Amino acid sequence: MDKLKILKSFLKIKFHNIGSFLFKASSAYIIGSFALIQVSSIVTDNISIKSSIGIEKEIFMQYLFIAVLILFPLFLIINFLFKKKSIDNSVMSTLNANLDQLDDYRPKIAVIPFENLNNDNDGQFLVDGIAEDLLMELSMVKELSVATRKTCFGFRDKDITSQAFKEEWGFDYVVTGSIRAINNRLRILIELSDMTDDRVIWTNKFDRENDDIFDIQDEIVTKIVNCIVGEIEITSLKRANRKPTANMTSYEYTLKGRALNQMFEKNANAEAIKMLDAAINADQSNPLPYSWKACTIGQSIALGFREDNDKNKAELIEALSKANEMNDNDWNALRIIAEAHLTLNDYQQSMVYANKAYNANPNHPYVLWIYGRILVRFDKIESGIKVLEKLYEIEPMALADINTDRIIKELFVAYYLINNSEKCNELFSKIHEPGFREWLMLIDIKIKNQADYLSENWFNLGLSKFKDLDFNKEIKLFHLNNKEVDLRLLQTAENTF
After folding, report:
1. What is the value of pTM for the model shown?
2. Which of 47, 66, 93 is the last residue of a domain?
3. Which string of DSSP letters, residue by residue, matches 307-354?
4. Which one of 181, 211, 313, 415 counts the least CB within 10 Å of its CB?
5. Rounded CA gap, 410 and 429, in Å?
C-alpha cells in the first residue's frame, strides 16, 4: 500500500503541468475522431467502398473505429513526451546563462535578526520568522549575493561594528530592524545601511494590520533592490506565484514549524511536523507547510530520527507532491524533487529540477548543494566546482553537519573526475572521516601516479573498515553517471581486497 502511495504521488509530480494539456489533447482527439467517423459514414454512403478498397462498408467502419481506439493512447503518449520535452527545454534554456554568471560580482547583503520590542519569548518566532522571510525574498534576486540564515542569525545579540561587517565578512549592505506586535497590528522599523561609509541609505516605518505582512515584505524588498542595483524588473518575485496564505494562523504555524525544523534535533523535528500539520489544517491551500513538511520528514530520515521505510517515504512524497501541485516554483520542493531524481539516477530530470530551483532561489545553501552536485554529474564539472566552492565559502558547515566533511567530500569527487590529483590530495587531508567513496578514489589516484600508499595509515584503516562491503552496490550509490569510472573503481576495490 505504501509503495502504491509513493508511486501515485511521484506520478502526480511527473504529470504536473501536463495534466490539463493532456485533457485538452484528449478532448481534441475525441472531437476529431467523432468528426472523422461521421464524415466517413457519409462518404461511404455515397461511394462504393467495396469497389475502391475491396471491403464492405460495415467492415471498413469497424476497422476505423478500432483504429481510433488503438491510436488514442499512442496519441496521448506522443503528446506527453512532446509537452514534457518542451517544458524541460524551457527550464534548461536558462542553464548556460546561469553558469556564465557564476563569476559575476554581486553586491553582498545580510539581514540581521530584528529586535523584538515586545521582549517576550513567545512572540520571538514571529519576529525571527518575518526577518527570515525577508532574507528568503532577497535570496531569490539573482542580482544580489545574500548571506545565509545561519550566518545572519549568528550575529544575534553581538556587537559587530560596521568595519567588521565590511572587512571581515565582506558585506556591502546590512539590513536591520525592530518589530513590535500590538494586538493584530505590527509596527516595523527597517533600515538599509551601506557598509562602505557606514551610512543609512534607506529607512521606513510600517504600522499595519498583521494581514498586510506580505505587502510590507514586497515593499521592503523592492525598495532595497532598487537602492542597491537600481530599477529592475524583479521577475523572480512575482507575489501572485508566492503569496502563501491570507490566513495568519496558518502563516504563524508555518513559521514555528520552519524554525523547529532548523534546529536539527529529534524532539524539535517531531514538534515541527505537528506545527506544519496545524498550518495545513488552518489553511489547506497554503503550499509552504507542505514543502517544509516534506523537508522535515526528509531530515528526520536522513538524521535517523525516523526509520527509512516505505511508510515514511510515502508521507514525504505525498507532502512534496502537494507542495509542487500548489506552487511549482517553490524552491524548497523543487530541490527535494531534484534530490529524489538523483537517487534514482535520473540525471536529466534532476538537472531540470535543480536548475529550476536555482532560478527560483540562487542563494540558498540547500539549492546550491543539489545544484553543484548534479552539475558535476551532468558533465558540467567546472561549474559544479564553482557552485560547491561558493557554498563552502558562505556556509562551510552546511545543513546539520558538525564539520565540513560533506562539502569537501563532494569537491573531492569533482576534482577526482577531472583528474586533479594534487587538489584531491589536499582535500582528502581535510576530511575528518573519509567514506568508502573517497578512500577508494584516493587509491585509484595513487595507482595512477604510481605512488606508494600501502603503508599509509588512511589506507590500512580503510582496509579494516570497508572489507565487508558489497562493492558493486556501494559504487552504484556514488551516483557518478559515468560507467567507465564505476567499472574502474570496482576493479580497484576487487584488486585491493
Report:
1. 0.84
2. 93
3. --SHHHHHHHHHHHHHHHHH-TT-HHHHHHHHHHHHHTT-HHHHHHHH
4. 211
5. 14
CATH of the domain at 198: 3.40.50.10070
Pairing of strands 173-182, 185-194: antiparallel
Whole domain around residue 54: which residue ranges?
2-93
How far is residue 413 from each of residues 353, 440, 475, measured CA to CA in Å? 22, 11, 13
pLDDT < 50: residue spans in the chain: 239-241
Query: Domain for residue 433, yes or no?
Result: yes
DSSP conformation class of 25: H
Q: How many domains does the chain have?
A: 3
- On whether residue 17 sits in a domain, the answer given is yes
Q: Which three cell numbers stand for residue 273?
A: 511536523
> Residue holding cell 529524489?
340
Please say whether the beta carbons of 178 and 117 come within 8 A: yes
Which residues contact residue 335 at a Cβ distance below 8 angstroms, ignoring those fewer than 6 apart?
353, 354, 357, 366, 367, 369, 370, 371
Cβ-contact 68, 31 below 8 angstroms:
no
Same domain, 132 and 190: yes
* 84 and 116 together in one domain: no
